[in-house]
Amino acid sequence: MLGSFGSSSTTTNSSPHPQEEDPPHPPPPPDILHHHHYHQQIVQQSFTSTSIYKRQLLITCADLISRSDYPAAHRLLTLLSSTSSPLGDSTERLVHQFTKALSLRLSATNAASTTTDNETLRRSSSYLSLNQITPFIRFSHLTANQAILEAIDGHQSVHVIDFDIMHGLQWPPFMQAIAERYPPPTLKITTLGPDLQTLIRTGDRLTKFAHSLNLNFQFHPLLINNEAEIIPPDIIIDPNETLAINLVMYLHRLLNNPDQIDYFLRKIKSMNPRVITLAEREGDHHHPAFLQRFVEALGHYTAVFDSLEATLPPNSAERLAVEQGWFGREIADIVAAEGGGGAGRRREGLRWWEVVMRGTGFRNLALSGFAVAQAKMLLRLHYPSEGYHLHAMNDSLFLGWQNQPLFSVSSWQ
Are 142 and 251 in contact (CB under 8 A)? Predict the structure, then answer.
């Protein structure tokens, strides 16, 4: 994990995390105007102290579980449950989700890694809400798209392989951009997944959109029958095509098997793509030591929940859906699941992926100034909050909240 995070949009110098300790109370101010400001400071310090105290209780509970002191952990979880709420402030909501995840771990049901049809629908809905109310997905898509657009400039036959297309939200802006080129190139998108019908529905929507643009477009959905078959043999690549590989929020799924990561990346390299786009969450959420993994995740999601608190009203249905249906599930995967299943949805930050990518022969391509400017405009127009910051470092772009990096995008060749 990067640790510190620049407060400027383009700074490359980092500053240390602020220490989470209670500042001493200042002496009483001399006049009534200063007294009002002083009262606000005390209220803020009290709120901050309470938030830190509750997070410290969570860490204490995780430590008890890591030392197998389950009776004490149960007692502390009872206390945490009584002081948290899915409808409270950001700290209460955060504590509620982590308390649920710790309870799942203690119950040993491994419910975090089970998926029902209703759960799939719920996650699909919360993903769409996540795309609307936070900049995280749009930032990743927009920056990756710009890297691809610049890499394929001047090429007339473009093939994108997307390993996690979801609802296809990334591609309409990309398609519109290349349709405006003259002459517009042909575009083929190949995508892979375990649910062929979902892929087909996504392809139908993109095909209709391409038709409205008069864009020559092909969509090839490929079914993956099991986790071992990460690259099916029936991917067809025409030697006359310019190939782009899109790995937005995908590589972390292979973390449980290092050999699988190495095989996957070497297979990708053999396809000779012109560009590979990589977007991942920032955070060391895959550490083998439970307590360290827990502390890292708590810091990450504290920033996420604070960003939602600062930009959305407390009664927002979309906020609640995202906190419970998306981030709550991620927290459960990190905290409650061990081994397979949900553990495969943990994360590593870009620093870790840089080592892996370079180890398999890839080199980092610098993101352009235009890509950075676009990301700045996205935040300014759609998510106008002083808390969100962009940070360019090592030819990559990071989006974070306050001093905490949350997502990164990079391109490779």
Answer: no
CA 94, 100, 105, 110 dihedral sign is negative
Residues 305, 58, 310, CA angle at the centre, nearest 5°? 15
Q: Given the DSSP bridges, would you call strands 157-162 and 217-223 parallel, antiparallel or unpaired?
A: unpaired
How far from chain centre, in Å, is Cα 296?
14
Q: What is the pTM of this model?
A: 0.85
Rounded Cα distance between 126 and 154, Å, is 38
Residues 6+ apart with CB under 8 A from 400: 5, 282, 303, 388, 389, 391, 406, 407
pLDDT tens-place string over residues 14-67? 333 334 444 444 443 334 334 334 344 433 444 468 889 999 999 999 999 999
Q: How far, in Å, CA of 62 to CA of 335, rounded?
A: 9
Which residues have C-beta within 8 Å of that of residue 158, sequence separation ≥ 6? 152, 178, 185, 186, 187, 188, 241, 242, 244
Rounded Cα gap, residues 134 and 147, in angstroms: 22
DSSP 233: T
Give residue for tokens 């997070």.
55
Which element (helix H / strand E) includes 221? Answer: strand 217-223
* Secondary structure (3-state) at 242: strand
- Tell me: the pLDDT tens digits for 267-311? 999 999 999 999 999 987 877 889 999 999 999 999 999 999 999
Residue tagged 């204490």 (tokens): 60
Q: How far apart are CA 172 and CA 98, in angstroms?
A: 36
Alpha-carbon distance of 361 to 355, in angstroms, equals: 10
Sequence-distant (≥ 6) Cβ neighbours of residue 188 within 8 angstroms: 157, 158, 159, 160, 217, 218, 219, 220, 241
The pairing of beta strand 186-193 with beta strand 217-223: parallel
Q: Which amino acid is at 75?
A: R
